[in-house]
Amino acid sequence: xxxxxxxxxxxxxxxxxxxxxxxxxxxxxxxxxxxxxxxxxxxxxxxxxxxxxxxxxxxxxxxxxxxxxxxxxxxxxxxxxxxxxxxxxxxxxxxxxxxxxxxxxxxxxxxxxxxxxxxxxxxxxxxxxxxxxxxxxxxxxxxxxxxxxxxxxxxxxxxxxxxxxxxxxxxxxxxxxxxxxxxxxxxxxxxxxxxxxxxxxxxxxxxxxxxxxxxxxxxxxxxxxxxxxxxxxxxxxxxxxxxxxxxxxxxxxxxx
Amino acid sequence: xxxxxxxxxxxxxxxxxxxxxxxxxxxxxxxxxxxxxxxxxxxxxxxxxxxxxxxxxxxxxxxxxxxxxxxxxxxxxxxxxxxxxxxxxxxxxxxxxxxxxxxxxxxxxxxxxxxxxxxxxxxxxxxxxxxxxxxxxxxxxxxxxxxxxxxxxxxxxxxxxxxxxxxxxxxxxxxxxxxxxxxxxxxxxxxxxxxxxxxxxxxxxxxxxxxxxxxxxxxxxxxxxxxxxxxxxxxxxxxxxxxxxxxxxxxxxxxxxxxxxxxxxxxxxxxxxxxxxxxxxxxxxxxxxxxxxxxxxxxxxxxxxxxxxxxxxxxxxxxxxxxxxxxxxxxxxxxxxxxx
Amino acid sequence: xxxxxxxxxxxxxxxxxxxxxxxxxxxxxxxxxxxxxxxxxxxxxxxxxxxxxxxxxxxxxxxxxxxxxxxxxxxxxxxxxxxxxxxxxxxxxxxxxxxxxxxxxxxxxxxxxxxxxxxxxxxxxxxxxxxxxxxxxxxxxxxxxxxxxxxxxxxxxxxxxxxxxxxxxxxxxxxxxxxxxxxxxxxxxxxxxxxxxxxxxxxxxxxxxxxxxxxxxxxxxxxxxxxxxxxxxxxxxxxxxxxxxxxxxxxxxxxxxxxxxxxxxxxxxxxxxxxxxxxxxxxxxxxxxxxxxxxxxxxxx
Lengths: 256, 340, 301
Ligand SMILES: Nc1ncnc2c1ncn2[C@@H]1O[C@H](COP(=O)(O)OP(=O)(O)OP(=O)(O)O)[C@@H](O)[C@H]1O
Ligand SMILES: [Mg+2]
What we know:
The complex is a heterotrimer.
Chain A lengths: L7 E12 L2 E12 L3 E5 L6 H7 L10 E9 L2 E2 L7 H7 E4 L10 H11 L5 H14 L3 H4 L12 H13 L5 E5 L7 H14 L4 E5 L3 H7 L2 E6 L2 E7 H6 L4 H7 L5
Parallel strand pairs in A: 3-8, 3-9, 6-7, 7-8
Antiparallel strand pairs in A: 1-2, 1-4, 4-5, 9-10
Chain B lengths: L12 H32 L1 H4 L49 E2 L6 E2 L2 H32 L2 H16 L2 H20 L7 H25 L3 H9 L4 H12 L1 H17 L2 H6 L17 H8 L8 H27 L2 H7 L3
Antiparallel strand pairs in B: 1-2
Helix pairs in contact in B: 1-12, 3-6, 3-9, 4-6, 5-6, 6-9, 6-13, 7-8, 9-12, 11-12
Chain C lengths: L5 H33 L5 H5 L2 E2 L4 E2 L2 H32 L5 H15 L2 H25 L10 H25 L3 H9 L4 H12 L1 H17 L27 H11 L7 H35 L1
Antiparallel strand pairs in C: 1-2
Helix pairs in contact in C: 1-11, 3-6, 3-9, 4-6, 5-6, 6-9, 7-8, 9-11, 10-11
The structure holds adenosine-5'-triphosphate and magnesium ion (MG).
């Protein structure tokens, strides 16, 4: 993948992460391309979520986590002194494995981000809320009940609401941690369509346990195993002729 | 060219100020907690460096308060013939057998007060201990569901009774009742005070014991039942012994509560600083002494310092008891029964 | 199955059951006695009048107002300070950090200190030390602050009830799911924005419970105010921080132990105790109910 430098959104070099004595990520090097979908696959507990959370510094919240190495977003080291996590997270949004809407109305959930970043104009806000909900393909289902509690939505709707909430901040990168793990096939396919559309404007990194999903939605795929990045290549190559035996075993399901 | 941003850490003044304020307030909380320790000890300290003021000879020597009946004990004995130069205060005077702080020849022996506190505490524990522990055993092992659910709020209500309410109840109802029933010579005495104190101690002992009993793993009880033991045998010979550390902590905490409680003893024990063996004589406890005398003392004199010294003693004792109890039960339990 | 074989079994169950029953009976007995003895005298006049005839007649109005002022000033200081301390403990320093452990240990210690020691501290620190300093600085040594008053009493009480608030709020903050904090931070919210918009709204119930419990405790304790501000008899209501005040619990205490005619004032004593009991009972009960509701909600979530 000899890429033009300009296309690289995130570059990771020699990233190591320890949770206390546990070495969760070993020397990870990866280049994530802009406006592409990168899928992270690997068995449970291999460090996919951990890796994803290093990209917007969510691991800072975990006391025991210790991070070494370099993560650059747009060529800038996000772990450098003086890097502002608040600004970083505005640019690098995240959607979590478990949907986590605030116990507020649907409208307030989406408006949360813009509001804390200083948007006060009501008309502007209404427009942004609608746009975000539309982008997340949930507008038609909720447009008549924006003041209803978000907790009253179904699991799939909640997850799409969380996506809308993240989009409302207008980030450049979207990190998605198994966004469809708790959803039925219909909701899952909605989210996949959504990802397909979103990659026009966003750089997306998605964790998934579903090989077909990875194959369908992603351009590049990274295979993690026991805290190491075993293989990283174009999705096509990974799924048709992987270089590593471990990768092949995993994607063909010969793996625990 | 890659877009190059200069993303220097944005300085958010509001955020910074709020964080500092929150930190400041938390540190002030901590500071005050430490100050309590410092001030109570600081006020007592001059006793031991000989810098406490000599007591001012007071005109109305007999003005010390006693609530309830005066048992005729020599609380304020005047020795007009002893108007010689007084001996300066020495720490060993605290070990004397008489507490007569307001007289021409004041005596600051803490032994009768300590003894009084112990008597009341002992009575309270002997009554509240078994009741609290067995009531907890009942709710955790035998009680039907409704009784178990009902017990909790009732105990919380008992814990929520202000101590003056219990003191009032003891003074007005219990004292006469007990006197009529047992024929006590004095209406207010160590036993009456101890019984009233038991009301205040039961909730602590019950709550902590209940927690300890509930924490015994189900597998243990089931194993015992599977071996053919009956329910009561299991409760008495398996569950209760297994919960011993927690129950021990419960008793310690009950001790601390009874030892430090002021209003109940001030109202229900007769407040005579005498050193007798009988549980039915009036007594004066350490805490009640502070409560009764602090308002009358001259700031900075020996009496004042001795009362602070008693406060420091109470502080140390409750601190020690808490530390030991904490050693026996997990931290989580500790919070629940302290009326929190 | 609650079948206990044999006589011994029945005795054991019976005896432990009797102990449980005794505890309940004690509560009922105390409450019934006080309600029975006080309800006839507890009239509107009793609540709204000032004590008269050397406190052998009249009502307890100033004591009610004094208690009210005491708990209000106490809460205004204690609840914010306790809440902020709890926020600091659970949101700013790591739960397991040294600092958190030190503060938690201190709070635990504070919760175990006898109430009378707080009274001593109030006298030594607030009345003597702070009062004298204020007088020296602002009044050239004239006596204004260096004597017992409602401010010193309230501050002493605030300190006594601080652990109640801290523990209550901390417990409530713990019930706010970490997921929500992460959601907020991932949207680019600052720590304080997350606290204000997610954590605090989620722990409002706990803060309220803590406040109610603190007020109930403050209204019931007498030992800390014995020599920091409570007055024996003071018909006029406190209107400055430097005023002394009458207080319900203290009133019960002096009426039963130092009244000029204990027999004659018995109905007043009963009725005053009843007022105090009703007050603390109502407060405790609402706190218990509120807490139960929060716990249910937490289980449901
Ligand atoms: N907060 C933490 N503290 C300590 N260890 C952790 C923590 N979070 C994760 N780990 C450990 O780090 C390793 C990687 O965890 P991670 O959550 O990144 O796995 P994952 O690949 O996302 O798994 P899954 O597919 O099940 O979500 C695991 O062994 C896990 O036990
Ligand atoms: Mg994961």
